[in-house]
Amino acid sequence: MRRIALKMLFGDSAKFYGILLGLTFATLLITQQSAIFVGLMTRTYALIEEIPQADLWVADPTLQFVDDTKPMAVTALDRVRSVNGVEWASPLFKSILVAKLPNGGRQLCDVVGVDDATLIGAPAVVVEGKVEDLRKPDAIFVETRGARKQLMQPATDDPNGPKRPMQVGDVLELNERRAVVVGIAETRPSFQNVPTIYTTYFRAIGFAPANRRTLSMVLVKAAPEQDVLQLKQRIETETGLSAYTPEEFSWKTLNYWMNQTGIPINFGIAILLGFLVGVAIAGQMFYNFTLDNLKYFGAMKAMGCTSVQLLVMVALQGLAAGVLGLGLGLGLTAAFGLSVPPDKLAFKLTWHLPLMSAGAVTIIVVGASLLSMLKVIRLDPKEVFSG
Question: What is the largest CA-CA distance in the chain?
Answer without folding.
Answer: 96
